[in-house]
């Protein structure tokens, strides 16, 4: 190691960061350099990055601003750093994350090692059955409004490495290149959603804004937080109303705002709760929690508070299915379509079958409809939709291996006591 450098950062750490960034893939930043391009001169590129990080001269390039469609039709801004900047951010993340993990709340699940959305969802279901009231919170533009001064106070408290603090400060203020005109916009608040370090900074910010505040002021109120998606469980309506009012004030003090329309109090109605309230459902991590009339294991129909794929998530899946290149595939056979779609279908199923398979199975029926349209266009002998439907139905019976959702069973009610 070159001892003349002001900061001690090992080359092995930079290489480990590179391997993780490469595994995560991702788009090119403002320099249009892809991972493949970076690899063409890998040794020299990594050395230059290590040299700048170790000398304190590394200056993050501007972040590329792109927009992705949200389920509600609006657009979400993302910030895409360059490949080298993602590697630099990963270097800092690998160093500071273990220390921060020692302090984070056990009911914080987003973007944390050993934590998952499914763990948060299971706990949400369990607690919704025990507590009648939920405060469902939506933070308005969280990643764009995070206060840099408060963020750096938390960083100063937990991050001893001077070089890590220096680069975090620079990343927070790195400009954004607006897409598509290329203009640069300076930033005085927020952290780009899409950066490697951003989720970790977001968790630290909300650790102080929300997690610790809840521990001090509402130690008996259980919650699940996945990044900026938060659900709180209350026993009484009055408690939930008071909590909502106090949280609005708390977030305002920390430079944030709870969305006035999307933040709501929900009554978790079931057969053992007699109340009749207007708002009795909420969405969390792609699932909708709501009362449903179902037949229990004793054959009796009762209302249970249950969870399944949300209408927004189902609509998004259908949208992605529509965007598949069905017309191009008219030159392909069904085996090629299977190879292209299998991983995507498996991913949807594995995520949305947590509380039973019927919801995602019904959603993926839309895939079969698209497949029928493909068959009708490809095979000219099929003059009608009925003939194309017969073709797909025969495939589904005789070649279940082709598409994962053809092997799904009915709803799994084993979790429901």
Give me some keywords for this one.
alpha+beta; 4-stranded antiparallel beta sheet; 4-stranded mixed beta sheet; 15 helices; 47% helix; 417 residues; 11 strands; disordered C terminus
Major sheet: arrangement of strands: 2-1-4-5
Biggest sheet architecture: 4 strands, mixed
Terminal CA distance: 61 Å
Q: Number of DSSP strands?
A: 11
Uncertain stretches of 5 or more adjacent residues = 411-417
- Radius of gyration (Å): 25 Å
The dominant shape is: flat
Question: How many helices does DSSP assign?
Answer: 15
Helix-strand sequence: HHHEEHHEHHHEEHEEHEEEEHHHHH
Residue-averaged pLDDT, rounded?
92
Helix content: 40-55%
What is the SS-derived class? alpha+beta
Q: What fraction strand? A: 5-15%
Which assembly state applies to the chains in this document?
single chain
What does this structure look like?
There is one protein chain. The chain is α+β, with helices and mostly antiparallel strands and 417 residues long. The protein contains 15 helices and eleven strands. A four-stranded mixed sheet has the order 2-1-4-5, with no helix packed on it. The chain has a four-stranded antiparallel sheet with strand order 6-7-3-8. Strands 9-10-11 form a three-stranded antiparallel sheet. Strand 6 (222-226) and strand 7 (229-234) form a beta hairpin. Helix 1 packs across helix 3, helix 7 packs antiparallel against helix 8 and helix 7 crosses helix 9 (198-217).
């Amino acid at each position: 190691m070159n001892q003349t450098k002001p900061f001690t950062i090992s080359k092995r750490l930079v290489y480990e960061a590179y391997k993780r960034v490469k595994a995560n893939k991702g788009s090119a930043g403002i320099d249009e350099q892809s991972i493949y391009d970076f690899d063409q001169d890998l040794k020299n590129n990594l050395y230059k990055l290590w040299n700048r990080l170790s000398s304190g001269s590394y200056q993050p390039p501007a972040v590329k601003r792109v927009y992705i469609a949200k389920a509600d039709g609006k657009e979400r801004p993302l910030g895409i750093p360059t490949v080298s900047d993602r590697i630099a951010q990963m270097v800092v993340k690998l160093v500071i994350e273990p220390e921060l993990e020692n302090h984070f709340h056990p009911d914080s699940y987003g973007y944390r090692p050993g934590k998952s959305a499914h763990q948060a969802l299971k706990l949400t279901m369990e607690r919704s059955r025990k507590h009648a009231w939920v405060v469902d919170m939506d933070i308005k533009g969280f990643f764009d409004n995070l206060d840099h001064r408060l963020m750096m106070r938390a960083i100063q408290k937990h991050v001893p490495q001077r070089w890590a603090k220096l680069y975090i400060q620079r990343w927070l203020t790195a400009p954004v290149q607006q897409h598509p005109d290329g203009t640069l916009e300076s930033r005085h608040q927020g952290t780009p959603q899409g950066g490697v370090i951003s989720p970790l900074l977001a968790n630290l910010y909300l650790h102080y804004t929300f997690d610790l505040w809840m521990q001090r002021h509402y130690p008996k109120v259980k919650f699940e937080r996945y990044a900026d998606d938060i659900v709180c469980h209350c026993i009484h309506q009055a408690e939930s109303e008071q909590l909502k009012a106090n949280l609005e004030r708390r977030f305002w003090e920390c430079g944030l705002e709870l969305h006035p329309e999307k933040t709501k109090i929900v009554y978790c109605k079931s057969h053992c709760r007699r109340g009749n309230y207007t708002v009795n459902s909420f969405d969390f991590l792609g699932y909708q929690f709501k009362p449903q009339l179902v037949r229990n294991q004793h054959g009796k129909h009762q209302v249970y508070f249950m969870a399944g794929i949300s209408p927004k998530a189902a609509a998004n899946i259908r949208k992605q299915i529509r965007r598949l290149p069905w017309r191009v595939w008219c030159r392909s056979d069904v085996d090629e379509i299977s190879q292209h779609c299998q991983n995507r279908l498996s991913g949807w199923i594995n995520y949305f079958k947590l509380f039973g398979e019927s919801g995602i199975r019904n959603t993926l029926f839309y895939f079969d409809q698209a497949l029928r349209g493909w068959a009708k266009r490809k095979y000219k002998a099929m003059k009608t939709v009925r003939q194309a439907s017969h073709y797909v139905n025969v495939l589904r019976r005789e070649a279940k291996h082709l598409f994962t959702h053809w092997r799904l069973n009915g709803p799994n009610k084993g979790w429901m006591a």
